Description:
This protein has helices spanning about 20-35, 40-50, 70-75, 120-135, 150-160, 185-210, and strands at about 35-40, 80-85, 90-100, 105-110, 140-145, 160-170, 175-185. The chain is an alpha+beta fold. It has one domain (about 20-210): 3-Layer(aba) Sandwich (Aminopeptidase). It has a seven-stranded mixed sheet with strand order 1-2-3-4-5-7-6, with helices on both faces. A hairpin with a 2-residue loop joins strand 6 and strand 7 (about 175-185). The longest helix is centred in the C-terminal third of the chain and has 25 residues, at about 185-210.
Amino acid sequence: xxxxxxxxxxxxxxxxxxxxxxxxxxxxxxxxxxxxxxxxxxxxxxxxxxxxxxxxxxxxxxxxxxxxxxxxxxxxxxxxxxxxxxxxxxxxxxxxxxxxxxxxxxxxxxxxxxxxxxxxxxxxxxxxxxxxxxxxxxxxxxxxxxxxxxxxxxxxxxxxxxxxxxxxxxxxxxxxxxxxxxxxxxxxxxxxxxxxxxxxxxxxxxxxxxx
Length: 211
């Protein structure tokens, strides 16, 4: 099930006979349980550069993975935290927190092409924000997302990011229209609590209705 494939109210999985909200929550918890988010090591870079090319419209982001991409641009800068997401021996994504002020940073994320649409982006983003607010002492995180990236926008909205406007940026010689979004530490904490509560309430109501 992808980021944007949410079940309809009361929808039940055909195989297991239980609410899809329960399955999706269990799946995300299983991802978080087996995923490690750690700091980037020099040896990781060669592996990331061998990741498959992004298909279709996502190809516009492929440069971020390659030589002279995000890792080369930021990994030696002192005010940048770069994390990699690891499952077993595989690297499946990486994220950056680029300091832009005393207690604020820009967030960026990249997933391996064959790992997109499976809930991992939301998990990596959430774990990165937790580290940013709890360990790095950030109070605000902001980002830009391409306006045609509807899946990414919905992901950030679920995490609690709010729309802060729009901007144009030149990316590899092409002007791109971006949405600006931001989240504070308090809003992130409230959003996490709310999502946990909503999942619990939906599962309780759906279980009660079956009796």
